[in-house]
Write a structure and sequence with these properties.
Layout lengths: L1 H21 L16 E8 L5 E3 L4 E2 L3 E9 L8 E8 L2 E7 L13 E11 L5 E9 L4 E12 L6 E4 L6 E6 L4 E5 L4 H7 L14 E5 L2 E2 L2 E2 L2 H12 L6 E4 L8 H16 L2
Parallel strand pairs: 3-9, 10-16
Antiparallel strand pairs: 1-2, 1-4, 4-7, 5-6, 5-8, 8-9, 11-12, 11-13, 14-15
Length: 270
């Protein structure tokens, strides 16, 4: 910031001196604005294995954390320091960094994202509060978060199951409850209701899916598999969660894939 001020003053002094030599009256009115304080925002945390944790928690117990923070200063001043403090059952633990190597500071926006290796371990499965503080040398700013849970991280996987072609039930709203069209109750009428136009659109609007076929006309389809996933995988703690992602198999693969994105993202924690 001082270099920028110096550059402006040099430019104006050149103008003033040139004006004096030519007899032209010139003057400079320099308005000194008050300092605009910086801001700091915690984007996320990571542990030593690279696992990402939301800033609102839960955070892992007994892991060395890296904090990804975003610093911004409208006056284009770099941070003098960044301090992090966590308060929990063991009291307050603080970490401070006042030397920043190779800062890729964006002088056009005053913004920079910094990864900070915190020399702090949260050793109790409890609720913590924390704050991050920074300064541009004149003013300070804080990012504060309270009631953050710290616990053992779950490393169990989530599983999404995508059933085979025509293995998802299709429905539409009936006069009383849902009218199942697939598997068909009335073969000719239900099949006609599922027709598609040449443009790939459903002839009848409002057709939807909500589950996969467990059994059909007395034959086991996915019933045993569903039971196995519930009992032997989730309840036994082998995996964290699973979901059968039913889809409208009448559509093309692009539309089907787009419809499954939310299920995959939710299970992936994205």
């Amino acid at each position: 910031m001082n270099k920028a001020i110096q550059a402006v003053l040099v430019g104006w002094l050149v103008i003033l001196m040139s004006a004096a030599q030519t007899g032209t009256a010139e003057a400079l009115l320099l308005v000194i604005a008050p300092n605009m304080p910086p801001s700091i925002n915690v984007v996320e945390f990571r542990d030593e294995d690279g696992q990402v944790f939301d800033r609102a928690g839960p955070l892992p117990v007994s892991r060395v954390l890296t904090a990804v923070v975003e610093y911004k200063d409208w006056d284009l001043e770099e941070p003098i320091y960044i301090k992090a403090c966590f308060t929990g059952p063991e009291g307050e633990a603080c970490w401070n960094q006042d030397v920043f190597d190779n800062l890729n500071f964006d002088t056009s926006t005053g913004r920079i994202t910094i990864e900070l290796d915190l020399a702090i371990k949260l050793n109790e499965t409890e609720t913590y509060s924390y704050y991050f503080e920074t300064s541009d040398g004149r003013d300070t700013a804080r990012f504060h978060k309270s009631q953050v849970e710290v616990r053992e991280p779950s490393n169990n996987s989530n599983v999404i199951f995508i059933p085979g072609f025509q293995a998802s039930r299709l429905y539409r709203k009936g006069a009383i409850g849902a009218d199942r069209l697939w598997e068909p109750n009335n073969h000719n009428e239900d099949a006609a209701d599922l027709m598609m136009t040449k443009a790939g659109e459903s002839v009848n609007a409002g057709i939807y899916t909500r589950d996969v076929i467990d059994e059909s006309f007395g034959f086991n389809i996915y019933k045993n598999f569903i039971k196995f996933m519930d009992k032997e995988m989730v309840e036994a703690g082998v995996i964290n969660e699973w979901r059968a992602a039913a889809y409208d198999w009448r559509y093309g693969v692009d539309e089907v894939a787009a419809g499954l994105v939310n299920d995959v993202s939710e299970l992936a924690g994205m």
